[in-house]
Amino acid sequence: MIQRLKHNFYLHCGALAIALFIMFFVHLSTGFSDFSYMHLLSILMGGGTVEETLTIFDFRMVRSVLSIIIGMGIALAGAVFQTVSKNELASPGMLGVNAGAGLAVILFTYLKNPNTVSVWELPIAAIIGAGLAAAIIYYLAYCLGQNLSTYTLILSGISLSAGIHALEMLLIVRLDPEKFHQVNTWIIGNIFGNSWSQVALLFSVVAVLSIFLYSRHMDLNLLTLADETAVGLGVQLNRSRFIYLMVAVVLSACCVAFGGSISFVGLICPHIARRLVGVDHFRYLPITALIGGLLVITADWIARIIISPDEMLLGIIVAMIGAPYFLFILFRTQR
Amino acid sequence: MQYILEPHGRLCCLYQSSFNRICNAFLKMGIDFERLRSIISYKLREGNRKLLKINQRTEKMQVCRNNLYKRGDRNHTYTLVFVLLMLITIFCFVFMYIGAENINFATIFKSFVNYDPENIQELLIQTLRWPRLITALVCGVSFAIAGALIQGITNNPMGSPSILGINSGAAFGLSIAMIIFPAADMNVTVLFSFAGSALATGCVLLLANRRENKTTHVYLALAGTAIGAVFHAVTQALVVYFDVAQDLSYWTAGGISGIRMEQVKIILPWTFLGVMIAMGIAKSITLLSFGEEIAIGLGRKVYFIRILAGAAVLLLSGSAVAIAGPVGFIGLITPHMARKLIGIDYQKVIPFSAMLGALLVVLADIAARIIHPPFETPLGAVTALIGVPFFIYLLTRKSVAR
């Protein structure tokens, strides 16, 4: 069994990487003006006009790369959170990250004129909001449960998210239609970044944290065991839970800031990965990340072509792909 | 020394005197306690492990005695009913009085006795505030009873309509109704809302029952959130794709401000039916809340009761959600308050939850109007702001966390 899964791991890794690469090209070539693949290749090699180079490198590639990184980040955050909470229905949204970021974005849009906002302000507001909400939820869980119980964490996350959503509703009814549209777009989920410096920031955060997680895959494996067993094997439960939860929060907060609340990715990608390669984090984490990237870039591509020249919202496409599959998995494993 | 069952189906031992008092309390509720005991001792002989877990902690015994004996006091109950009804009446008057324009009581009274449509204030009372008040009361009653039923049959202190995905299911049903029949009347909308809620609730219960041995209170909440997320996502997609987002957001944020009397009349029969079913099975619900084995042992058809209770929950919360939009937390809070006030007999818990629910929604809707005067605050937002602290308080109690 293990041999088969190991074999599958390299196979799946390769297949997913190739699929991701292909989707990257497809994503680059579609848009307001389509390029043929050969032409695209020549532009990438440096043989295009100034306009074409600008379109590809400064507009489209930013978005393609961002969507891959966001997908990977949220998927990894979901995987870590599901491991730490030992529950396959947990999703990064339950850490309050989405709700907090959403509230911050709404508050920000409510207070400021959206036309004068620089590219950095909205993501930073979102990160701050997400961090605050996560901190409150963590504090509650820690205080209520004496030691960090994942049950209280999940429950206080769910309830506090509901409370924050209520606050959001209070604010949303006061927004004028233009601002409402902007906020709604954010809440449903869309790729927002549009500069290489943002890509660099997000990439460095996601890369550092994923390398950290991957280097600690044995620790994560131990966390999936029963509490007593894990303690017996030398895991400091509270400390490692705290560390991995913080990693998950930072990962998803950064990704949510640039991608809106597409937390569905964090719910389903770990499921798919587990079905493909089992629960060993050495195999499970990379596959989750690859699936996350693939899912988001595919969804972004579909969002562009489905009602072109208009754009569908990314979050909706992710949900449309993810929701039926999620239900399918849940009810299949019933037998 | 005698053995007795706690509400959660575990055994604890009691001294003879306390045992006699509990026996009497059971007799008052119409339960044959001798038969109950014979079943227990039979199970003990069988060596049923679950029932053999003998719990000797005195605090638990205290809770058990308090619930069954002290709080069943009759005078106490009547006083509470009186106080609650008084409060509801007072706040109903406040409800009619407060608003964008404050209307004095003489005018309110006159509009009922001698209605003059030419008078703006009387028109306001009769066409806006009166239907709105009725809706608030009906919604409060519906959500509260639905919550009490769910908590009773699942034996889960966190059961509530919104956790079972009723809200997201109803939104899904409504969006389908808006897409297929853009000009549909309220009857069709309510039906679709029922269907949507039933679908979502069915999914949540299927999912929660999947892990028979591991089912915890948390798992139900998680299953509810996950299924809710799925339905929410699909609804979002449908709504944006077919461009009815505005209609749905009107339903989501509208609360109960624009209700007309005809709409109220459409849901009233459903609510009435639901309340009747709930009261009819209240006694069986009490037994079910002690644990499934006891209810079966005492000759209750558990599946039948569950199906009836499920139907009542759908009737009540489906109709209330269809008319008032997603109003959470009422169904979660009120049964707990009711149990604190009068004990665990569901023949009392259900009417008490209903009264408390009506009171809470009326209060919340008054708050919704005075928070930000010229505008309305969504009712669901206000109830969530009340409900979240309560939910966190619930979490602090040990029995819920695991």
Could you explain how this protein is built, in words?
The complex is a heterodimer of chains A (335) and B (402). Chain A is mainly α. In chain A, helix 8 (196-215) packs antiparallel against helix 11. Helix content of chain A is 78%, strand content 0%. A three-stranded mixed β-sheet of chain B has the order 1-2-3. In chain B, helix 5 runs parallel beside helix 17 (346-370), helix 7 packs across helix 17 (346-370) and helix 8 (166-180) crosses helix 9 (186-209). Chain B starts with a strand and ends with a helix. Mean pLDDT of chain B is 75; it is low at 47-59. Classes of the chains: A mainly alpha (335), B mainly alpha (402). The interface between A and B is large, with 47 and 46 residues.
Overview features:
heterodimer, A: 335 residues, mainly alpha, 14 helices, B: 402 residues, 3 strands
* Low-pLDDT residue spans of chain A: none
Largest sheet properties of chain A: none
- How much is the radius of gyration of chain A in Å? 20 Å
Amino-to-carboxy terminus distance of chain B: 30 Å
In terms of structural class, how would the helical and strand content of chain B be classed?
A: mainly alpha
Largest sheet of chain B: 3 strands, mixed
H/E series of chain A, N to C? HHHHHHHHHHHHHH
Query: Beta fraction of the residues of chain B?
Result: under 5%
Q: Kindly report how far apart the N and C termini of chain A lie.
A: 21 Å
Number of helical elements of chain A: 14
Shape of chain A: globular
What is the residue-mean pLDDT of chain A, rounded to a whole number? 80
Q: Quick one: which chains have the greatest interface?
A: A-B, 47 and 46 residues
Shape of chain B: globular
State the helicity of chain A in percent bands.
over 70%
Write down the Rg of chain B. 23 Å
Oligomeric state, counting identical vs distinct chains: heterodimer
Percent helix of chain B, as a range, is over 70%
